[in-house]
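Subject: sequence -> structure tokens, single chain

Hey, anyone have a minute? Need the predicted structure for the following. Not urgent.
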Amino acid sequence: MKKALICGISGQDGAYLAKFLLEKGYEVYGGSRDSQMSTFNNLGILGIKNDINLVSVNLIDFRSTLQSIIKIKPDEIYNLSGQSSVSLSFEQPVETLESISIGTLNILESIRFSNSDIKFYNAGSSECFGDTKDNPADENTSFQPRSPYAVAKSTAFWLVSNYRESYKINASTGILFNHDSPLRPDRFVTKKIISTACKISKNKNIKLKLGNIDIVRDWGWAPEYVEAMWLMLQNEIPEDYVIATGESNSLMDFIITSFEYLNLNYADHVISDNNLFRPSDFKTGRANPAKAEIKLGWKAKSMMKDVIEKMIDFELSNMM
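Reply:
Had a minute. Here:
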């Protein structure tokens, strides 16, 4: 039985990955700064909390990270931890940089110090590319980060690349474009849109306040994306991969599609609020995920419309 350590198991991707690995027959360990205090609500929603070995590990603390890895002796480590909100990173830049970049470095150093044959997955981000305009980003596209979050993810990416080259560590980064599910926190704009639209369907007097709605992004379905993470570590040769649907839509499209699915007119309920604009943002994010299909056999099945319908159906079923 293979052992996997998922750092950041309480988040959306961590929970879905844990479920996926359990179904593959893995013994799954879930890392959290304080496993006794964390709620692990997402694991409860998926009905797998009692199947996970929950451990306390602070990735900012090298000793804690090293001790945990030596004790667990995992075959695979998935680092999905760190501050995950782009908007919040402008308010908490230091915490964002430390939790993502230092956390990644401590895992890499721990793997090196333990001299173990561990495969490592690093959660990258399409935010690193910045504005792709009409040129879909692939694994060779240069980074132009436009937020503290993107800077931190770029730093982690190059740390992984450096340790892979210098110390022959089997480490790969998945450069994931936007991917959503019902497990997204409300601070994410897609969940905010879905959640508020569903409330409006029950109470027409509610308004949805949003910032910049002219952005264009590639939205996929999170449960599909965790399979791509696993597939990367099944390759003997570690590489980096762009994971996306290859289809980009505007946030306005996302809003219109969400409200139409609920038989609502978005124009009656949506308000643009300049106070919700980020200090710095980019307009367009487009992806070319061809490498993942060719080398991993992975291709997204759910497009934006599918994601919206699944999220709304879940939201409405839990409002009854």
